[in-house]
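Researcher: Go.
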Amino acid sequence: MNILSCNNNAPNARYFSSINKIPDEIYKELQCLDNLYFNPKYLEALEKSNTQIQFFYIVLLDDDKKAIGFSTIQIIDFYLDSVQNEMQSIVEWVKCMGRKLKVLSSEKPFKILTCGNTFVTGEHGIFIHPNQNKKDVLQQFVKALLHFVNQNTSLKNDIDAFMIKDFIKESLVITDDLHNEGYYSFKVEPNMVLELDKDWVLFEDYLASMRTKFRVKAKKALKQSNALKVKDISESNIDSLLPEMTKLYKKVSSSASFNLGDFNLNTYKVLKENLGDNYILKGYWLENKLVGFLSGIVNQNSLDAHFVGIDYSLNRQYAVYQRMLYDYVSMAITKKLTTLNFGRTASEIKSSVGAVPQEMTIYLRHKKTIPNKILSLFLNKIKPTEFKQKYPFKDKTLIEK
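Model: Structure:
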């Protein structure tokens, strides 16, 4: 469905229903192409392969009609019944209250207009030109978003809520102004981040920097996974592997507490075509059976881990997931990167390989006042899952002494 019409543009904003409709000069004015999450080659892959999601894009302009900001918007269907963790009892209460007040329907999903990347953790929804006031531009985006929805009858009727995601702690001094626009904020599972030591030239240097207990654990996992054959998944062999990869991905995604949306693994094919070596896909075989895969993107100075697929029946015996985590570290070191973003979930095991939590905040508001109040009660109950942080590295100051 084409949700844009020619009279939709606000005075300081332009709206696009496809990434390929955005003129090249806009990217030049924004200077955003180095960040792959705002590069049309990446966004085209998401848009082309995930037709269950409606995509559109907002470009903000200054008084001279030059681009100063860019936002990626995804409209997703969220099912409250998909929540499968300790939040279930709260969800049932929200559903009950919502139906009593006739603001929640049991027949249709909760439709969320999301400013951000549904499939990736991090600040990948809004790009602001470096010489702009970020608070001012954020306010302009909020107004442009409302204008867009209000000018489209179908969206105005269908959209239940607005979400703006994900922001690190340092950004909250800017983004907390969203509270004045009726948004409520809540913390979600942290992004687990490993800052790579400049002294790690080889993977062995990383192992050597570990305390004995964690180095022994790492070597045990590497020994357990010796039987696995690790090979690159490329454009030439991905078609034959996608059915099995999808099964492995479903095993992981179905165990998550909830997902905003299902990722179509056909996206991988377009990502490899568009991004080449900057998009990483590796398969893990036991004899002739694919038992796991990992994916990731090299973006500027970071390696960002994306989705994985695992045969859980073999995971404990062959340490499949642990091997993947160490392989991410090895790749980041080899590529001389500075940061490894492991993303959400499995925080404790990620901390055992050296990652530390980076707080993430999401902003959400219902389009109607009363449901928004109900929503706030629900959001106040959301807390990131507690875990025991591990500290695998030696104290460098003690070593130097």
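Model: The first helix runs from residue 24 to 30.
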